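Query structure, 701 tokens:
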């Protein structure tokens, strides 16, 4: 739920006339700049050269706008390591980004020199260059510490370093920086870090070596923000920007002051929105307007998946011009969707082929999203309608981005966009080598605070705050190689501790850090009480094998193994593991055709056997998730050969969510394949279960 609606003056009044595509005359000079830059030989920017030099002699943190060439820095540094016979690890936050980078690096360095490790894929893992997710790298560091060996690499790149501040996954970035041996140089790349100097100081103090900060603020493709009036007229959003994208406001004008005509619109009580609240703007007309002023292709950022899908119906009159372009688009779609029934029969295929538009969000299958990204990157589409989360997760820039809401859903509630989130969205506007200028177009509406967005256009990225937190998987894995006192020392090196000391001073900061350490001991005590850790602080036999469960619910799964609740049948085993993966509350009313008696019995035994342990966890203040029947029925149906359409029906999920549920179940199963020494039957069942559930359309070539 929103905390409160934004305060606005304009309201929707009466029937909206059709848009009359016009532009304020002051935009003439800006529109004259639109076009493709002349081809030119690549010459690295000074900040790129400086960063490569810094990476040779120290750790390095590079913060620069999207599209400015940060990856080139990593490539040059990796080349130098490769020429010396060394090995490099390139870590990114998402499997999709890791897959894309694997393809890119295979072209640059040769496929024989590049491997990939993402959980879903393990190929050529002994290669000189390994691309993978940060979680896999963190787990390799756990293993190296346990075995008392050093990580067999000579260089590490952490891409998208601003994920250090991610609420759910920032802990992984922080752990890597703490655990990575100081002998291995570290290169961090990010487009959106406000407190880069503070992060650099923390890295230097933790790793006891210099971390050089390289900052670049210049966008390779300038951004020009505009306001689209509901009448169809485009205006500059900010004062002093009408003379060109690189012009500066008058010294007497505050940088964040809106253009007078936009201010007049907001102050006029008779001003109107595009449509009534709850309705979507006339996207077909808006596309026509953007086409008239040569502002396509565009990415429209909407508030929900449903809105993205509904938007396509409003684009039915978007004509693909010239006709040869439509033929080319349809031919490319046929090539990309060949032999993929789930793609060729997709419900949005008609919009893609006939109107050159698509919806991109986590509710769609990964293969569908990948095809949209490919088409957009190749310039085949006019528009993609996406949720704001796409801004941080993919790389398909457009000439323009269109923003309809000044807030976003963070998983719990709607919150106003912060500067970092806005910069990530704006970073998609303007394609390097294809555009002289990019545009951010703001549309008025019930949940658009235009004044707030105007400020965001000139504010720097927000500061990153530590998101490290103690969890049972972390404690178990650190106890493999450290005593409790040594772990306490490790935690004192965290970014959280550094920030507390910087903020409150050494004495108060240490007191604040103690609260953090107490949480570690709270976890440790629960592990002692339940037989995973001895009284002396060492892992018991149960603790040793439980440490291999690097999953969200390691103790619940471990208790299930101790109680013998997991069946040996691979399909039933996959279904049972899925009960620990599901994160959403669900309606457990399932069609009886998909609920065999043995599945219901296993679910009943699972809930009954684990209830005492789950209650103990909650009494001690640790969260646990209920084990629902519907996700189990879903995975069982998929593992036993039901069609994707029927499994989708059983799940009551979006296709993308269903694919993610299956992929996360497979990831949990993979961790259980490592239990061969203590649970050979379980390890074998897990291995067989992975093979049963990883198939089209969840995975694809």
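Result returned for the query:
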């Amino acid at each position: 739920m929103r905390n409160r609606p934004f305060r606005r003056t304009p309201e929707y009044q009466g029937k909206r006339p059709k848009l009359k595509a016009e532009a304020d005359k002051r935009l003439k000079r800006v529109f004259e700049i639109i076009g493709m830059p002349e081809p030119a030989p690549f010459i690295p920017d000074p900040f790129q050269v400086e960063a490569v030099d810094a990476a040779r002699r120290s750790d390095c943190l590079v913060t620069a706008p999207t599209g400015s060439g940060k990856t080139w820095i990593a490539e040059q540094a990796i080349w130098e390591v490769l020429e010396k016979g060394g090995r490099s690890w390139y870590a990114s936050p998402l499997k999709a980004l890791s897959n894309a980078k694997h393809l890119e690096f295979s072209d640059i360095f040769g496929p024989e020199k590049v491997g990939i490790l993402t959980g879903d894929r393990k190929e050529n893992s002994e290669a000189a260059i390994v691309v993978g997710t940060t979680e896999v790298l963190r787990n390799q560091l756990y293993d190296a510490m346990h075995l008392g060996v050093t990580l067999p690499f000579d260089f590490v790149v952490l891409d998208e370093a601003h994920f250090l501040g991610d609420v759910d996954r920032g802990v992984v970035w922080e752990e890597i920086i703490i655990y990575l041996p100081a002998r291995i140089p570290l290169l961090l790349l990010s487009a959106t870090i406000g407190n880069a100097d503070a992060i650099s100081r923390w890295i230097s103090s933790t790793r006891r070596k210099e971390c050089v900060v390289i900052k670049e603020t210049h966008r390779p493709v300038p951004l020009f923000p505009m306001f689209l009036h509901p009448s169809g007229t485009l205006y500059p959003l900010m004062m002093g920007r009408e003379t060109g994208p690189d012009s500066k406001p008058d010294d007497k004008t505050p940088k964040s002051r809106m253009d007078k005509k936009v201010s007049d619109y907001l102050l006029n009580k008779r001003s109107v929105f595009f449509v009534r609240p709850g309705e979507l703007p006339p996207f077909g007309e808006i596309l026509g307007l953007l086409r008239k002023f040569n502002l396509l292709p565009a990415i429209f950022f909407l508030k929900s998946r449903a809105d993205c899908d509904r938007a396509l119906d409003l684009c039915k009159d978007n004509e693909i011009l010239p006709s040869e372009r439509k033929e080319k688009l349809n031919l490319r779609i046929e090539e990309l969707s060949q032999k993929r029934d789930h793609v060729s029969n997709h419900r949005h295929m008609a919009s893609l082929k006939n109107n050159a538009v698509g919806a991109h969000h986590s509710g769609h299958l990964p293969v569908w999203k990948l095809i949209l990204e490919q088409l957009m990157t190749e310039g085949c589409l006019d528009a993609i309608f996406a949720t704001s989360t796409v801004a941080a997760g993919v790389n398909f820039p457009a000439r323009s981005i269109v923003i309809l809401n000044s807030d976003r859903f963070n998983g719990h509630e709607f919150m106003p966009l912060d500067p970092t989130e806005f910069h990530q969205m704006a970073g998609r506007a303007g394609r390097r080598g294809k555009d002289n200028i990019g545009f951010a177009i703001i549309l008025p509406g019930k949940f658009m605070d235009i004044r707030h967005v105007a400020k965001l256009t000139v504010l720097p990225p927000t500061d990153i705050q530590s998101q490290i937190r103690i969890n049972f998987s972390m404690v178990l894995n650190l106890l493999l190689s450290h005593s409790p006192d040594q772990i306490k020392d490790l935690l004192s090196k965290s970014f959280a501790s550094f920030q507390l000391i910087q903020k409150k001073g050494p004495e108060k900061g240490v007191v604040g850090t103690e609260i953090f350490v107490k949480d570690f001991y709270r976890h440790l005590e629960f592990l002692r009480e339940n037989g995973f850790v001895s009284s002396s602080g060492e892992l018991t036999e149960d603790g040793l094998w439980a440490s291999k469960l690097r999953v969200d619910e390691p103790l619940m799964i471990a208790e299930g193994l101790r109680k013998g609740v997991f069946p040996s049948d691979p399909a039933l085993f996959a279904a049972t593991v899925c009960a620990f993966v599901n994160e959403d509350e669900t309606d457990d009313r399932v069609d009886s055709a998909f609920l065999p008696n043995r599945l219901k019995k296993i679910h009943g035994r699972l809930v009954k056997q684990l209830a005492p342990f789950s209650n103990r966890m909650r009494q001690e203040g640790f969260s646990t998730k209920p084990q629902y029947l519907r996700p189990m029925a879903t995975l069982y149906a998929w593992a036993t050969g039901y069609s994707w359409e029927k499994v989708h029906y059983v799940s009551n999920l979006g296709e993308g969510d269903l694919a993610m549920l299956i992929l996360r179940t497979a990831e949990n199963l993979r961790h259980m394949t490592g239990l061969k020494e203590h649970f050979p039957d379980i390890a074998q069942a897990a291995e067989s279960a992975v093979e049963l559930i990883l198939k089209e359309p969840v995975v694809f070539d």
